Amino acid sequence: MIRQPIVxxxxxxxxxxxxxxxxxxxxxxxxxxxxxxxxxxxxxxMPIEIIKxxxxxLMEKYGFKVDLPGxxxxxxxxxxxxxxxxxxxxxxxxxxxxxVDLTQGVQEQTVxxxxxxxxxxxxxxxxxxxxDLIFGWGSKPGExxxxxxxxxxxxxxxxxxxxxxxxxxxxxLGFQSERFDxxxxxxxxxxxxxxxxxxxxxxxxxxxxxxxxxxxxxxxSLSIDENxxxxxxxxxVKEEKGLGKTIDVILYSGMLSVNDKIALGGKHGVIETxxxxxxxxxxxxxxxxxxxxxxxxxxxxxxAVGVKIAAPNLNDALAGSPVLxxxxxxxxxxxxxxxxxxxxETNAIGPILKADTLGALEALIVLLKKETGxxxxxxxxxxVTRKDIVEAAAVKECDPLKAIVLAFNVRVEDAALQESEKxxxxxxxxxxxxxxxxxxxxWANGQTQKSRNxxxxxxxxxxKIQFMRGFIFRHSKPAIIGVKVLEGKLRPGAKLINRSGxxxxxxxxxxxxxxxxxxxxxxxxxxxxxxxxxxGRNLNENDxxxxxxxxKHFQExxxxxxxxxxxxxxxxxxxxxxQEKAAEEEGTE
Length: 589
Description:
about 30% helix, Elongation Factor Tu (Ef-tu), domain 3, 13 helices, Rossmann fold
């Protein structure tokens, strides 16, 4: 049989994700079909009959013939569900709706969602929300396509401007996109649906595209045997009054029944337990409402649904873990293997990663590697502990920039904070993965620059200067002359040699217009005092002089090569050859 596609809804905070899902649920109420829509744990099923009633005309117009049973919208808070594992890795979502507020455009969590969509290769549709706030646009319930014809040119132009700003931003992020009615190839272009979660405008087009594109491009992956052993993913682990710890599960394959034995991931290993109860919310009830009177006991469930499972020994259940019906006896091994494929504890010189769910941990690992090339020393689910800081500190001797902890959506224990202050291990934590990685990159770049600056202060820099004619302020003891920096940087303490490699003296002090300076750059004219310099003997007007670079400093300069421009790099080679030639001649003599 064909199961309904699992659709997840993503978006930046306050961009309208919740209102969109509420409108999806409420649409059927408006159509006087309140009983047709079914609210599941963490999900809402919209039957195909309702979709056809709302968007049937559009499906015919766009040539979509649909025989899917419906759409299953995941509406659990956050994106734990979206990044949860399957056996092959990736998301349990077949398709995603990315909600973007047209008045605000792409924001932090929008970029986060797009990065995850790309990494998990999940097709998506953009819901360009809040067109009711576009200047000059008159929004009303129903089809965007019909309402478009009634708009003023000013309203159409204002909408196009906002849509093409979004198209440009998506292009920057690596996606071709276009307003859905202008798309020429749905396999290459991300369709953008102008909509209003407030008025309901554009909802028919969104449902038409979700159902039609799923039918056309995802049908093979939606084929299942509903009597196969159940396979799902834990969305949330909850305490329910009278039941104890329960797990909210999206079942995306097969079936589960009361008294079935199941295996799932736990914080300390695989848990095997027996289903005591399967609970489904009553139609149209909000699943996050407290009270078991809102639920129905059922004996069996078939994919794809959301269901609450009550069973013993769920205290350590791991959000994001796979759930398998135990039939062959090897299910525990399969789950352990899947979890081990995400978690890491190695001898790698790398950071410690912590996240709230297994799926979020996988997303953190994938995005970290892509953005920084780093592999973790350890990656695990749970709060940041003192032990995590101690393990990060052990990396410090090898590479201080990797002696860090990256923590997504978890708590940092007080003992961990204290250990962090003591050891200097940095903790980067927050609820937007790419933002955490961005903050780490900024810090690492800053530390690298600091380290380079410290090295640059200690190393002899390449410099080439010329004794300017007519600028003799003192002939000797020390000689004070005017020079122009031809290339490189001149600092007090620089030992000078002439073109023949003969030592002239050392720069003791430098001034510009009577004020002391610590560094002179290319093009500047500077008064310098040179100890052992005697004008007319070893210093003559128009002489070109070079700063000496000790042999051991050449290697350090090579390591700092990206701190110098091409002319400075050529000067380093010129000084090296000059000094080597002078050393050879001195040896010959």
